[in-house]
Specification:
single chain; 446 residues; alpha+beta; eight-stranded antiparallel sheet; 18% strand; elongated
């Protein structure tokens, strides 16, 4: 027998559909509205990610059931995570009614459940543990510590992105922009809620503008019951197969094995698996210098508290315009003038021949190789470009984008808008939602 239907009241709070303050702790009007929104729009096709925030909160709260008193702290943590998610997508959702409904709904729920705005969150999402019978999985890597296992069968697979840094140095961002940069000294490569990566670039030759990565520091932040904070640091001629404290996993926590270092080639190639955030990192030493490559879910890439005000994050925003080098113009100049630019560098024709041996496709990796030989004279940069492309083949989820041919030179301001998905097509559920617009607009005007 169906329970009696609660009367929904459209309040004057930006279209928030709920039962008002008098409804008590359950806020029953919120759940059918949220469920309706989840079923009405394709969350993956719009740059506004509010439906993704909705679905994560829905999953985190076991389908929207009101919490018992003992579960209130967890519910408040889920609400704070929900609020954080809406803030991250605010810039692309300014005109979205579902977004405004969610924002004001969160305010109502926080008030009804006496949740403080400051406090712990549940990131990237609350997940359930595996069945009790799977003791090995539970002891080694509970589901909360395995990013991919948190996606249920009815959910879309996570969207992975790639970033790489190699050579003199050349940067491929998470949005497949390719830049050559000066960036001498220490620069942040990745800086989000889960890890920080910083690189230090030093001159290759005395008095030369050519730089390469001589030091790499990766900080994996403490994460729930999975891993303790861990630091990995590599330098020229020192590529350790362990974290700074000598350990090879995430510490003593329940899901420590969800963070692990594997040495592929002694002193030359290390791979770090961070399963709790779905991330793979490859660090190599090629010649005297280091290369870096990462495969990371888009959700983790964008897990930044204040994306607009954050500033530098090279893998996400690219190099500042003042630090970018037009290596194609340099290459064209060298082609027109066959003599080497410096006594220790290669002539143009020799550089082309050496790069062709490893990189037969004349893409940007090949062009970066030629540039590096012309500016440094170090033949190991040929291998750096070769392995950077091999890492793309292993880590990039879109096999149609392995080779890039058009170099990107643009201001960081445009970086924030690169790679956005097209606007969604209207589905039948969307049309149904449009029928509710008059009520939403009346609420907005109230």
């Amino acid at each position: 027998m169906q329970p009696p239907r609660e009367r929904l009241v459209v309040t004057g709070r930006a279209g928030w559909m709920g039962m008002g303050r008098g409804a008590g702790r359950s806020a029953l009007g919120f759940w059918p509205t949220l469920a309706f929104l989840l079923c009405s729009f394709p969350a993956a096709t719009s740059p506004c990610k509010i439906l993704k925030c909705n679905s994560e909160f829905w999953s985190a709260t076991a389908g929207g059931h009101a919490p018992a008193s003992d579960d209130a702290p967890e519910f408040c943590a889920a609400l704070r995570t929900y609020a954080l998610c809406t803030r991250r997508t605010a810039r692309t959702c300014r005109g979205d009614l579902a977004y405004h409904s969610a924002v004001h709904g969160i305010e109502d729920l926080m008030s009804q459940h006496n949740c403080s705005r400051d406090g712990p969150t549940s990131q990237p999402r609350l997940r359930t543990l595996p069945p009790p019978g799977d003791s090995q999985e539970r002891s080694d890597s509970p589901e909360i510590c395995h990013y991919e296992k948190s996606f249920h069968k009815h959910s879309a697979a996570p969207n992975y992105t790639h970033c790489g840094l190699f050579g003199d140095p050349h940067l491929r961002t998470f949005t497949d922009r390719f830049q050559t940069c000066k960036v001498q000294g220490a620069w942040p490569l990745i800086d989000n809620n889960y890890l920080n990566v910083q690189v230090t670039n030093t001159p290759v030759l005395p008095g030369s503008a050519a730089t390469a990565t001589s030091k790499l520091t990766i900080i994996f932040k403490n994460f729930q019951e999975c891993v303790e904070q861990k630091v990995y640091q590599a330098e020229m001629d020192e590529l350790p197969a362990a974290f700074a404290d000598g350990s090879k996993n995430g510490g003593d926590k329940h899901g420590a094995n969800s963070l692990r270092i594997t040495e592929k080639v002694s002193g030359q190639h290390v791979e770090i698996q961070a399963k709790y955030i779905g991330t793979t990192i490859v660090v190599r030493q090629v010649g005297r210098y280091l290369t870096f490559a990462v495969r990371m879910p888009e959700e983790v890439v964008n897990a930044v508290e204040d994306r607009d005000g954050q500033g530098l994050y090279l893998c996400l925003r690219g190099c500042p315009l003042s630090q970018q080098i037009d290596f194609q113009a340099f290459r064209g100049h060298q082609a027109a003038s066959p003599a080497p630019a410096a006594p220790d560098t290669f002539p143009y024709e020799t550089a082309v021949a050496k790069c062709k041996e490893r990189l037969p496709v004349e893409d940007l990796y090949y062009q970066a190789c030629v540039f590096d030989l012309l500016t440094t004279g170090d033949v190991n940069f040929t291998l750096a470009a070769y392995y950077a492309l091999e890492d793309v083949k292993m880590l990039h989820s879109n096999k149609d984008k392995l080779h890039l041919y058009e170099r990107t030179r643009e201001s960081p301001g445009r970086a924030a808008t690169a790679g956005l998905s097209p606007a969604p097509r209207l589905l039948p559920g969307s049309l149904l939602f449009l029928g509710l617009l008059p009520g939403f607009l009346d609420a907005l005007a109230a």
